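Task card 7
Instruction: Convert sequence to structure tokens.
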Amino acid sequence: MQRTLRLLAGTGAVAVALVAAAGPAQAHPGPVVLSTGHVDAIDVEFEDGALELAIHDEESDSEFAPSDAVLLVKSQARTTIPDDPAYAFLGTAGAPVWLLPQVQNPDLLFAGLSAEELEPGVFTGDQITINLTGVRGPGDIAIFTQDAVGTPTVLADDTDGLPDGLPLAAGQHEHVNWAFGKAGVYRLTVTASATLAATGETVTSDPAVYTFSVKR
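Output:
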């Protein structure tokens, strides 16, 4: 590999309320913008017999509906695609790519997947699946992990068709790489599904739309 994707470590979180003027006398808050620090970007929960999706900011221990937060990919996330066939799923070697890494970088959002609040024994094999069912945005996206020597495992890639399923175990928390091919706003439609151990019934959450804003 002539160039590897750079994964750095750090901590911190910023949550900024965007304010939109509603009239001459008052303003109303808009979506919270999460730009650094540890966040469960897709947090799967099970309440009253239904799977639900949320965003959990670990730094402030705050929870948001996906529609109430924007996940910011700052310009510092821009890097280039390695000259390595293993990374061909990202596009042409040397082309730009914006990467939120699976290892903490103090300047960037540290965005993971979580099923930590799910109790063992509720679902068959303690397994749930996060389903990426749709992407709207200016470029391609990929979600992948890397092992200790930098070899990638692709979990989701919209260039070869959707839906893609990302498996998680009850109680599991996992960090992944989020790669975006162009700057702009991306809206990812996501569901979660699992099979109830007691009845064999498959339960699926309502679709949730997650917004990533990628800065040039």
